[in-house]
Amino acid sequence: MMVKKLKDPGQLAHEKRTKIFFLLVIILFTLLLYGNTTNNLYSLDDYIIQAMDSQVEEHGFGLVKEIFSTTYTTVTTGDGVEKSLGYRPVVRLVYALEYANFGVMPGVAHMINILLYLTLVLVLYRVLQRVFRGYSIWFPFVITLLFIAHPVHTEVVASLKNRDELLSMLFSLLTLQMLLKYHDKSKIIYLVAGLLLYVIAFLSKPTALAFWFVFPLTLYFFTNMKWKKIGVIFGLLTLMIVIGGMMPFWFLDRIRDVSMVDNPLYFEDNIWYILGTGMYSLGYYVKLLVIPHPLLYYYGYDMIPLVNLGNLWVILSILLYAGILGVAIWKAREKHVISYALFFFLVTIAMFANIYRPVPGIIGERFLLIPSVAFSIVLAWLIFKLFKAVPESAVNKGSRIMFVMIFTGLILIPYSYKTVKRNAAWYTDLSLYNADMPYLENSVKAHDLMGNTTMRKIERELAQPVNVAKFIMPEISKALKHFKRAVEIWPEHASSWKNMGMIYNHPRIAEHLVAKGDTAEFMRFKRGAISSFKKALEIEPGDGKALFNLGFTYENVGEIDSAIYYYERCIASNRQIINPRSRLANLMFMMGDLDKAVELNEEIMWISPDEALPYINFGNYYMMSGDTLHAVIAFEDAAKRNAQPEVFAFLSEYFSNIGETQKAQFYKNKHTQAMQAPKQ
Question: Residue 235 in contact with residue 202, Cβ under 8 Å?
């Protein structure tokens, strides 16, 4: 009869103190690394959480029903139709609870992300302790430290939008913990809890699918559970995938507006290019784990090239992954920790390989959150072996463990520096774009985003009462440079062509160039606008924005026939549109076709009864005809609607001149209110 050897009470007490020390280090290290994110504001894609304020105010407690019965977010497609995508009610509920309790406070939002990451780390550490039971207590500790500090996690923690990734992995890890407890304690409650937690993981984000094979893999390697029982559990987990990941789309639309800019593989049918680019991206993921620099908020076309199987990097990636699979299979029978880690990596990275289905952005650092666990296990095991420490043994020489920790520290120092510095880059959209732009020269979307951000800044400056165009010409050139680069990479990028046209044709810039007397530059900008809008229309012939602005540009340079042509095309493409009708009506009036001008303005009245434009137009027509009385009547009708401040100013001055002080003061007050109202 074998007698189990009991540990010395002193040794048990020492181990307990050590484990408490480990927990304190893990907590403090996590908070130290990510504490600076609480200084950040909102950045890339964080509009999702910012939008919660209006939803909470609109629905109140009814928002819970709204969250669980609607899709994650809504996008507007190229044809102007709003379509919804995704189903992540758990993360939406967390956002709503945050807003209900704290309002829109980015510092609080970032602290919640930090605490979620810390919770995830602590659950991971507990799972590793159970998985590596009987191993050196330092082994799961080193793995956890390496995982905490790896810089690829900055996107998930520092970006509030990626809270869905944190929640999905957290609940998946809790599922794994419950399955291990089910084996250890043989209580069905743990199995039920695990299955429910996996549904919640899917309702946070479908990337929980990455854990699908991790569960049976872990049960095989670290329990003595029979294959049949593992198979039953795997079947139940598969049922949870159907419930949490697929069933919602039986009654909700499953639509994603795909783009060449996001991933050219959406439009690629050649299997060799699909396989080649897929293996290239898999190799790139390994590179990011080994050398996490540069880290980028977005990749997309043409950062990751479309390549076939003959590419050198693809061949090296195939050889690397063949080696990983070979070692994993070779060591599987003895249930070696390296075999487990390599299989873990392969099954969790597979869904992001761009082979079965394209991944938005081609590469995403957030997709390495789960596979980096495997990388941390392998790296920790190699460090132990480097100093002849035995991770599988509870007993190791103190000197060897000391060298293990020193070497681990040498890795953690650059990791930590990179993480803290990268956190700061996520301060705002603009800080992120500026930090990454030097490495994103070939990304269409990066240039488009940078151009748009600069363009919004320009719009704010040009909206001031005093024309400041001459002071911001360098910013204008910067925006144009990014849009030009975007269309150099992909000439079919219509939005960049349109944005260039909008800058070239901006009335305040034109005003500055005229005042400066630079006729040549003025005409260069107008020709640039015409060329840009025409390029956009070659790609999207029915685009209303390009049609209207092309007509407006032709009107500005005096080519009236061309202006009329494009205004009419714009109206034909959208029968409910207003602005081109108004511009066309005014041109018809100037050309003497009063009947057509009246007809177009009456159409606007029918389309939008609260629109002031037709009444302003009639007022202008009367003024130009010398009929001030009827002009004032028309302007007063406009003032009852969404009139601009200039209308109130005119009416105030008019009534002041004829001695009607009460009306003059009324419109003066309306003018003041209109000027103080926030810009839409």
Answer: no
